[in-house]
Amino acid sequence: MNTHTINPHTIATRSKRAKRLDARNFTRTHCAANLTRGVPCGTPLHSRFVDGQTVPFCPQCDRKRRGVCVRCTTERVAGTVGLAIYCVACKRLANAEAMARHRVAHADDRKARDDARRADPAKRTDRAEYNRLYRLSRPRKVRELAHVDYTRHRDTRLAYFAAYRAEKREQLNAARRRRYHGDLPERACVSCPMVLTGRAKRCGPCVQAIRTAARAAIAARLADGPASDNPCVFGTHDA
Ligand SMILES: [Zn+2]
Ligand SMILES: [Zn+2]
Ligand SMILES: [Zn+2]
Fold first, then answer.
1. How far is the CA of 185 from the centre of ligand 1 (A)?
2. Residue-range definition of the domain harbouring residue 27
3. Please, what's the b/e burial string for 97-117 (b: 16 or more CB within 10 A of its CB; e: otherwise)?
4. Higher pLDDT, residue 27 or 155
5. Residue 205 maps to a domain
6. How far is the CA of 21 from the centre of ligand 1 (A)?
7. Is residue 230 part of a domain?
8. Nearest ligand, measured from the Cα of 70
9. pLDDT band (50, 70, 90) for residue 4
10. Domain check: are 175 and 207 in the same one?
11. β-pair type (34-36, 53-57)
12. What is the count of structural domains for the chain?
């Protein structure tokens, strides 16, 4: 007799383990077996007739036992028959999903780590210096990345600008209507309590004071001589 033709999980040779599991599932509606470590099967149980009595039958555990992927239920599992549960493609998908779940579950840890790194001034300076040198050394790559960024976010940004303009337009129209009807509320100058009419944000004297101060600051700076001799980051031009 050729022993290779015998299925070790036929009714006659069912293992003690399988019988124990049947006993556990006897009073349940969903499978109690472990599909993999830490993951219960939980599949709704069917029943079948064995040795003169009706016993629970789990189609998913049966697939695992036969080495059929429990996810697509058609492909052969990648790994040991009886232990592995996914085919090559489903395994990859399941891994990607597990990593996504992990990212969500540990988002706080990750944020704390990232924040700590950003808060470290030494690392920050280091990073900034590296980025600066990278941009200088790979101008074409930088242009490519800028283009990728442009194409990727183009529609979102255009939509944002359009919405912003529409909102501003509505605000201006509302103000125009109120001005026409003469019920525009009184507004104070943003720098002093003087009441204004029209569109100006500041009163004339405040605008004049700001301009005078700015001119004085510039004059003081020029009087100190050249602000700084910034070395050109690209090196000397005649080199
Ligand atoms: Zn099961
Ligand atoms: Zn599969
Ligand atoms: Zn003012």
1. 72
2. 3-66
3. eeeeeeeeeeeeeeeeeeeee
4. 155
5. yes
6. 9
7. no
8. 2
9. very low
10. no
11. unpaired
12. 3
